[in-house]
Amino acid sequence: MTKQEQMVEQLKAVAHLGNAIGKLYEELALVYSSVPPRDGVLLDVIGNRTASMMEALGDMLNATDSAVEDDEWLTPIFEEAHRIWPQSNQQ
């Protein structure tokens, strides 16, 4: 396999893994919207973890100039996540 072929396969793998994670988190959002965690610690663990993931994914999109105007609805979600679960890489 050439480097280009390997690169293409890796792009497909990233797309597949990203889609799988996206589906998982959509399902978790549905579950937790109707049955919130009873344990406040679990709520903070999930909240902090997803805030961190949002930051990483947002950074990835920004680095590739892939953020679009339709993504504006995310701004208040990011702002509130920064307030409640600030990430160490924030300035």
Number of helices: 3
Structure summary, number of beta strands: 0
Using the alpha-carbon principal axes, give the shape: globular
Number of domains: 2
Main pleated-sheet profile:
none
* Rg from alpha-carbon coordinates: 16 Å
Report the uncertain regions.
none
Order of helices and strands: HHH
Q: In percent, how much strand structure appears in the residues?
A: under 5%
Mean pLDDT level: 92
Structural class: mainly alpha
Distance between the termini: 43 Å
User: How much helical structure, as a percent, in the residues?
Assistant: over 70%
What would you say this structure looks like, in words?
The chain is an all-alpha fold. It has two domains: 35 residues; 55 residues, no CATH class. Helix content is 73%, strand content 0%. It contains three helices and no strands. Helix 2 packs across helix 3. The model has no long low-confidence stretch (mean pLDDT 92).
Short description:
With 91 residues, this protein is mainly α. It has two domains: 1-35; 37-91, no CATH class.
List the defining traits of the structure above.
2 domains; 91 residues; globular; mainly alpha; single chain
Which helices and strands, and how do they pair?
Blueprint: H1 3-34, H2 40-63, H3 75-84
